[in-house]
Amino acid sequence: MKILFVAAEATPLVKVGGLADVIGSLPKALVEIGHDVRVIMPGYGIIDPANFTTSTVIGNLNIAVMGRTEQVSLKVTELGTKVRVYLVDSDDFRNSIEVYGKGDLERFLLFCRAVLDILSKLDWQPEIVHCHDWHTALIPLWLKKNNCHYASIFTIHNLAYQGFFDARFLIDADLEKDWQLRPTDMPDPPLNFMGQGILWADMVTTVSETYAKEILTPEYGAGLDHLLRYRQDKLFGIVNGLDYDEYNPAIDDFIPAKYDVCAVDKRIDNKRALQKRARFAGGVEVPLIGMVSRLDEQKGLDILTASFDILLQKTEAQMFILGRGREEYHNLLRQAASRYPEQLAVFIDFDDTLARLIYAGCDMFLMPSRFEPCGLGQLIAMRYGAVPVVHHTGGLADTVQDLTQDMSKGSGFVFQGYDSEAMLAAIQRAVNSYTKKAWQNVMRRIMALDFSWHASAKRYESIYRKALELKNS
Length: 473
Ligand code: NHF
Hints:
Blueprint: E1 2-6, H1 18-32, E2 36-42, E3 54-65, E4 68-78, E5 84-90, H2 91-94, H3 104-121, E6 128-132, H4 138-145, E7 151-156, H5 167-172, H6 176-180, H7 194-200, E8 203-206, H8 209-214, H9 225-230, E9 235-237, H10 267-278, E10 288-295, H11 301-305, H12 308-314, E11 318-325, H13 327-339, E12 344-348, H14 352-361, E13 364-367, H15 377-383, E14 387-391, H16 394-399, E15 413-415, H17 420-433, H18 438-448, H19 454-472
Parallel strand pairs: 1-2, 1-6, 2-5, 6-7, 7-8, 8-9, 10-11, 10-13, 11-12, 13-14, 14-15
Antiparallel strand pairs: 3-4, 4-5
Helix pairs in contact: 1-19, 3-4, 4-7, 10-14
The structure holds 1,5-anhydro-D-fructose (NHF).
1,5-anhydro-D-fructose (NHF) binds at residues 17-19, 22, 157-158, 207, 240, 372-376, 395.
């Protein structure tokens, strides 16, 4: 099949979050099982031209948007992975120093319109247009409205980000007619981009089975649960995979000591390096909990920051936290780190090299997310032998099985209720289990689990086939 991925970010070109990892790795997995996959994304000015040579495919397209005409062209770059990436080049994207920020609604409206226009002119025609997250969500609407022959898939990576706007934008962006157009039984479309992808795509997917069920409820539906229930028979959850070439402790040049499942004892050198980086004095026998995360409520920072005193007074454990997010949490974390300098290290940063050292050196990896569509951190942690401690939600529930008392089965420490007590109890359980002999077996067991893309790529393949059948029926 010929499949075009449409998304706002993709590794290795630009990455803000897990979306980029998926767009950087799922197409490769689909190519491996015989499909022809290309990606189209905005040509941000921050994409380093020294690393990616481009050539122009289509020049000088005039796109009408917000009452003006924007000049757009299409470039292409080869990543050496048999996946071509098209870059939509416009002043707006070229001049922006951030991937997301001010003017996103206008920029992604332009992107969606440009993709539609480009599709009609491109010398390579896909059968499937696979759109990801709100930045691309108007495309399924316009494909339907224009009776285009492509089947459309819309994947929700995180329902919390919807591209919200107000009634004024609807008029200025000339979207009023689109908002009125709908079958009589279709719920009223809300004022955001995301709803359109959900309502109009031939198939809707999200990134884990549990999250696919959760978002049908008002509690997790972020105001779109009624639209999702309306499309329920076309909604599927497919868990994300991990790029096993990119994340492999046996060949990872960013970590001090490389290791594999047969030599987990070598991790100790990475732990030492991590403790040194944190300036912790305690020895390697002290349990070390790692966290690499966006620092906000979704990721559980509210229950975590409320628990430091109990956690660090009740246990000897050390904690190493890396991430960025809300200012409020930066301050709370810094304050806690200054209260417990021997036990808590906080790095407010995006730093892939340090992140890898955390995965390779910590004993436990904490993800107390309130909700988690899939989550990548727990998958990387398991691949690197760090035992996950997670809230039972979304993709965390689908990928981490609670360890039995004797630790002979399971892959991590899972807590059920979303509150500090439940999280603390799970951490305590992990800390108590750390000295047991069985811990080594758990490390080996989780490193041997298979979270590569192969199985999920096969599931996408069957969704694409269903979408095509539906389109041609
Ligand atoms: O893994 C990629 C990622 C997910 O849970 C993650 C999230 C955003 O919140 O699908 O998207």
